[in-house]
Specification:
179 residues; alpha/beta; three-stranded antiparallel β-sheet; 4 helices; binds guanosine-5'-monophosphate; binds magnesium ion
């Protein structure tokens, strides 16, 4: 166990089970449709790749970037969005894969962006849901795990760009980010 981590939160096996369930949920919803799956970089990268590979429904994939953190553990409000979407979202059923819905600001910003670009529907699937910290009225359509108010790293999630490649999710020690 890495020194700055307090404990494993969800194991690799638990994650893989939940991701398969999420893929199954999406398959039931999108069977026979032609959805566009969009991953929010960088945090959702592991989740996104496992999710789309576990789906039976053929999907096209694309990516957006949202960043609000920098080297801190608290969101700075409105995130900076960068969309380099090669596929047009106009008229498409979009599956949006997020790492964590925390305050909800990022989700609202991305959803509004996709709606303005003419998406027919936006279905939000997140790895982690932190409802206790919500400041805007928004909910993911599906979440794999509900998380406590802790700072979580691993499986794509970082603290100051570290820990993204861990295959499990872990809680970061508070003394690492509280100075
Ligand atoms: P929101 O806009 O909902 O406040 O923030 C969502 C984004 O903040 C997530 O997509 C994620 O990138 C980041 N975030 C929120 N909570 C955590 C956490 O516990 N760990 C990490 N690594 N990032 C988090
Ligand atoms: Mg994010």
């Amino acid at each position: 166990m890495i020194e700055d981590l307090r404990r494993v939160y969800f194991t690799e096996k638990e994650i893989q089970t939940k991701v398969k369930e999420a893929a199954h949920w999406l398959d039931e919803r999108f069977c026979g449709k032609n959805p566009l799956a969009i991953g929010v970089l960088k945090g959702s990268v592991m989740f996104f790749c496992d999710l789309v590979r576990a789906m039976q429904t053929p999907v096209q994939i694309d990516f957006m970037t949202a960043s609000s953190y920098g080297a801190s553990a608290t969101s700075s409000g409105t995130p900076a969005l960068a969309a380099d979407l090669s596929a047009s979202v106009e008229g498409r059923d979009v599956i949006l894969a997020e790492d964590i819905v925390d305050s909800g600001n990022t989700l609202v910003a991305i959803r509004d962006f996709l709606t303005k670009r003419g998406a027919k529907s936006v279905t939000v699937v997140t790895l982690l849901e932190k409802p206790a910290r919500r400041t805007v009225n928004v909910k993911p359509d599906y979440f794999c795990f509900e998380a406590e108010d802790e700072f979580i790293v691993g499986y794509g999630l970082d603290y100051n760009q570290q820990y993204r490649t861990l295959p499990y999710l872990a809680i970061l020690k508070r003394e690492v980010y509280e100075h």
